[in-house]
Design a protein that fits this description.
There is one protein chain. With about 220 residues, the protein is of the alpha/beta class. It has one domain: Rossmann fold (3-Layer(aba) Sandwich). About 40% of the residues lie in helices and about 25% in strands. It has helices at about 1-25, 30-40, 70-85, 110-115, 165-170, 180-200, 210-215; strands spanning about 45-50, 60-65, 90-95, 120-130, 135-150, 155-165. Helix 3 (about 70-85) packs parallel to helix 6. The N and C termini lie far apart (about 45 Å).
């Protein structure tokens, strides 16, 4: 009886794997041409410590998001960041900072020690505003600053800045809505993790999708 069950499972397993690949095909890697477009799209400037040449396999992220941007964005950014790093072969743990005064590595030393990362990343995310004709200040994107820190020496290994600016990306007539903040999060994740993968880990980054429908199609997290 046990032999029959084992044989049945062996026969079914390839079908399950095939079905998963059909319904959730993996997006292709980002080409060098597409990577250049990412730099331009998000106005990214970056610098890496030339003496650092190790691949980061585990990363502890301390993410500070300004209060006006937190609703919707913060939750989606946290989960998309973890899944994006995983897609690029990096285990990640993310702490979302709630207090403006608490953003240093020492404040989260216990969590970092438990996770035992190769490096710690600090992200500082601010909203980009557009003042509409009626005077309302609409959030139309993010301004991000990212640093990769050696947890042992506090030495900065890599630094990047950029903007997810929907007015710049889609034109002056773009009208922001609350629901679009998930896409702000996915785009911010795309900018950070794609450049991190290419510059720090020296690899061809996995494509990170930025539209909810596309993420659902390819099985990437949308929460």
């Amino acid at each position: 009886m046990k032999k029959k069950i084992i044989i049945t499972l062996l026969l079914i397993s390839p079908i399950v794997i095939f079905a998963f690949e059909v319904f959730y095909p993996k997006p292709k890697k980002i080409s060098k041409r597409e990577l250049k477009q990412i730099y331009k799209k998000y106005s990214i400037t970056s610098k890496k410590d030339s003496s650092f040449n190790k691949k980061v396999g585990r990363i502890f992220v301390i993410s500070k998001v300004e209060a006006p941007l937190r609703p919707i964005f913060a939750h989606s950014f946290e989960h998309s960041l973890i899944s994006a790093f995983q897609s690029n072969g990096v285990d990640a743990s993310v702490v979302m900072v709630k207090s403006p005064e608490s953003d240093s590595v020492t404040d989260y030393s216990k969590e970092a020690e438990t996770f035992a990362p190769d490096a710690t990343m600090r992200t500082n995310i601010k909203p980009i505003y557009r003042t509409r004709a009626d005077g309302y200040q609409a959030i139309v994107g993010t301004d991000f600053d990212v640093s990769l820190i050696d947890t042992a020496t506090e030495k900065r290994l890599w630094h990047a800045t950029g903007k997810v600016d929907y007015i710049r990306m889609f034109g002056p007539h773009y009208r922001a809505g609350e629901g679009i903040r998930k896409e702000f999060a996915f785009n911010t994740t795309n900018a950070i993790v794609s450049v991190f993968g290419a510059e720090v880990n020296g690899q061809e980054p996995a494509r990170i999708l930025t539209v909810i429908e596309s993420r659902q199609k390819y099985g990437q997290r949308v929460d």
